[in-house]
Amino acid sequence: xxxxxxxxxxxxxxxxxxxxxxxxxxxxxxxxxxxxxxxxxxxxxxxxxxxxxxxxxxxxxxxxxxxxxxxxxxxxxxxxxxxxxxxxxxxxxxxxxxxxxxxxxxxxxxxxxxxxxxxxxxxxxxxxxxxxxxxxxxxxxxxxxxxxxxxxxxxxxxxxxxxxxxx
Length: 167
Prior knowledge:
Elements: H1 9-32, H2 35-52, H3 60-79, H4 102-113, H5 117-128, H6 133-140, H7 144-161
Helix pairs in contact: 1-2, 1-3, 1-5, 2-3, 5-7, 6-7
């Protein structure tokens, strides 16, 4: 088990926050499809880590990712609204490029919002974070078959949303 390296706990936590908070926020946002709820989850997870301390954690990154995932699904379970379509805040970031087409980004975002949270999660981890199906399965505690099925169902729903025919 790794322990903090004798340094200041708050300083270590600050570095961890600086390194991971934006990625964890995007992950929470994709799961919850709600900007303010995602902010609350990140604050809650880091506040809990500040209280509990980091000693005894083998992988802080993995611990935080699982903690964010669990907090998101707990909130979704309480609200039973895994399909939030009119939330403020965007799921996808704008691209600063000559080819940026906001209407396409907004259309994709609408398609993503219409997916169940577990499918949005797999799409986010696979497409936006570049993780393998095995990594996603390890993170979620689900089988690789379940993860690949969620991805396939999500892609089928997105294709149907955009009128793309299967070949």
